[in-house]
Amino acid sequence: MKDLSLWVMEEAKRRGVQFADIRIIENEVESIETENGGVSEIGRYRSVGFGIRVLMNGSWGFSSSSKVDKHEMEKVLSEAISIAKASSLAKKEDVVLSPVEVYQDEVPHNAKIDPFEIPLDKKLSVLLEADKIMAGVNGVKIRKGSMYFMKERKTYASTEGAFIVQDRIESGAGIVSFAISSDGEVQRRSYPNSFGGDFKRAGWEFIEDIKLIENAERVAKESVALLSAKPCPSGVMDIVIGGSQMALQVHESLGHPVELDRVLGMEASYAGTSFLTPDKLGNFQYGSKIVNITADATIPEALGGFAYDDEGVKGQGVYLVKDGLFVGYLTSRETAHKVGLKPMGAMRAESWNRIPIIRMTSINLEPGDMSLEELIKGVDRGIYVETNKSWSIDDKRLNFQFGTEIGWEIKNGELGDMIKNPTYTGITYEFWRNCDGIANRDYWNVWGVPNCGKGEPVQSMHVSHGTSPARFRNVRVGVMK
Amino acid sequence: MRGREEVINSLKEGLSISSADEVELLFLGKESSLTRYANSTIHQNVKESNSEIRVRVVIGKKVGFSQTNDLSKEGIEKAILDAEKIAKVTKEDPDFVKLPEPEEGKEIKTFFEENLNVKPEDMAEKVVNVIKRAERKNLIASGAFSFDIDEYAVVNSRGIEKYQPYTSFFFTTVIMGENSSGYADRFSMKFSELDENSLADEAIERALMAKNPKDIEPGKYEVILTEYAVEDVISFLSYLGFGAKQFHQGTSFLSGKIGEKIMGENITIWDDGLNPEGAPIPFDFEGVPKKKVMLIENGVAKGIVYDSYHAFKYHTKSTGHALPQPSSFGPLPLNIFMKEGTSSLSDMIKNVKKGILISRFHYTNPLDPKRVIITGMTRDGTFMIENGKISYPVKNMRFTQNMIEMLNGVVEISKNRKKQKGMIHVSVVPCIRVKEFNFTGKTEF
Fold first, then answer.
1. Which of residues 221-260 of B touch A (CB under 8 A)?
2. What share of chain B is helix, strand, coil (3-state, %, to 5)?
3. A249: distance to nearest CA of chain B, Å?
4. Is B154 exposed, middle or buried (0-12, 13-18, 19+ CB in 10 A)?
5. Is the entire prediction scored with pTM above 0.90?
6. H/E element, B232
7. Which of A357, A430, B255, B379 is 20 to 30 A (C-alpha) from B35?
8. Nearest residue of chain B to residue A420 (CA atoms)
9. Using one digit for the tens of pLDDT, what is the confidence trace for A244-276?
10. Looking at B39-97, which runs of residues are DSSP E strands?
11. Summary mean pLDDT of chain A
């Protein structure tokens, strides 16, 4: 792959491009799904291909192909050049890339136990044992389990001389129990998180850490108990939000609005823009003084982590919110130049057939100094909620509404009855300014989110969020009718 | 593009490699171009050439899956061996009966050779026309213009041998002013039928109308939903409730309700993969011919769609709605039609004393999938209607609404319908007027 990629970069230079880069990706996924004691899927999925991005006449062109050979690379390079020329028909100004350090590097994966070496029957036995335990709980109607493993080799080269090979292994797993009442009400509980569980840039050792079997009975019982739980109360009250739901709260209300391409209108036609406009950088009180949020691609095992992004920029950690103040963006070389910032390495593509765009890395709410018990103790009337069920936010990322799988009333500083269908809503900065407690590092986990959608054609990206439970005052709760 | 002969021959060669009891090979070939524009400039312009084969092998009642985009003989052989290895270790599925048998189906033309002449500069030219029209009104244009050449083929060891090429275009635009925006899109199977000027004008008109929106309080309002918003609703009905898997496991709003009246008498929804008014495709991803399925008729729950697995499991026939296997969603309708009424958007507006016109929804998501309670925001033009006229634009609002209840309160339906591209389906839907709709929050723009 090295010879091919270096050859095509030389060829691009010979054809007079201002800049070009290539990513060659070999990817293999193993997906396992169980349902009600059976196996609904075991699949092995392989993909290989390359994409060439070209800057010519001040505009971008990109083309890609699944045939990795010299002849096809020549053809794809020509396509990318002619597409760039077509792009320049609607150009207002030339694209300029911020200068960055150029690296040659090889980065191994960090899995301790290669999950592809673990026999399928061992993987299946974990899911089927968890399934059996859930089946033993009276009232459970649907049980599901899943495991996901991915290994990838990404070769990157640019006309500036970068040459980087990165190996990556990811693992994830989860279970979910559904209970259905006689009148058709459906309630569900997931573990360790909803929508497939939890995911890390790690190997089989992560699956062993998750302890699906040990948690199967609890989630099954909770799904059944939800059928007879109280409805979520309605009104303005205090709320303590569990760690995995905080991950999605950070994702939607800060992760997306700090993507500089959104801010600059480049995503306007699909996902929208952002309220965090450049005039607010460094002088907008996003949250209370205890709110510190970072983008950090260097966290070991974080799903949103990497050594180099898809422009060859080294992964790094930066503050986005410091002591409540909005101080940073997720950037690319192109967008960083537009606002006079230094690129911080957030450009990634879903695969070889997609152009890199600005994506979250690991976006983390730094831990506070309280215990979960202390957070709850400080609430006279409110709710505690866990595990995301639904999410929605407006196209500038101001008005959000979340639903969670489960909640509990808090009365006079103590957890009370279980509640079903909890929802809460707010305006992003008002909500974060009312954050008055964050649980400490003992509660902090880096949650893997494998399904962040953005771009056209849509690209699903693997990101992560380090979070612990947090407390917010005066939140509107219970909007579902 | 590979063409019928190359694709079918390569799949048949793959079939001969396998020693499994049954084998199915699905070919998905794609040459896709997308020109994306924002701030009135083309900022992303991409092309993808990819072909993949999905393998399903059956040994006894054990099923294994694999996929590869290495279409060399060795690549296909490796994928088949992967699937066979999996089938040997997986658990038996007592509900699996067999792969589908060949069935005669209708031939449909879905490939238009003239489209092959379309070049990146032709697409850029149409984008430039949209940008110019927006700039004449001091507005900013953004959007995406895609051109897909797809090839689908299925062969299986029971004799199915199907191939279908497909060309399609999808052109969207969001036109933005200082504090307003308007949206429009067009889906077409022919480049020559795409009118970028009417696309631009529709969005420009909305953006100008939506200028300087006012703040209003959330609450219950009579509403008119344009086709764009109706498509969003239909999309949720489809994936939450119209498929056999959700229906039989009891998580669909239709579960246990076939034959019952669940929506207003004026609501009729069906799937018809053969109707040229939609985006027809003659067979599903198992090679089973598409059948028309009535889903809701005059408000009464009538039917759901099946693939071969769920058809065998529940002792009925496949309706030709399989997705690529394995599918955690089960079968889904991909060509949805909602019956037209007799009204028009302008008539509907005249009939509203006080209500809201919703151009489009944004970031909709189910709070309660079984009851189809959906939350989301309005976007790209929301308007107050008073005494039969649009009186002023309003800032975007959040809704939290039971969509089945909403479809029980539809008082007017437009005669004109629009072809809409959803995430994985195409729908043909009208505008509707609804007596009561629940806004639960608001935002600042």
1. 249-251, 255-256
2. 25, 40, 35
3. 15
4. buried
5. yes
6. helix B227-241
7. B379
8. B368
9. 999 999 999 999 999 999 999 999 999 999 999
10. 41-59, 62-68
11. 97
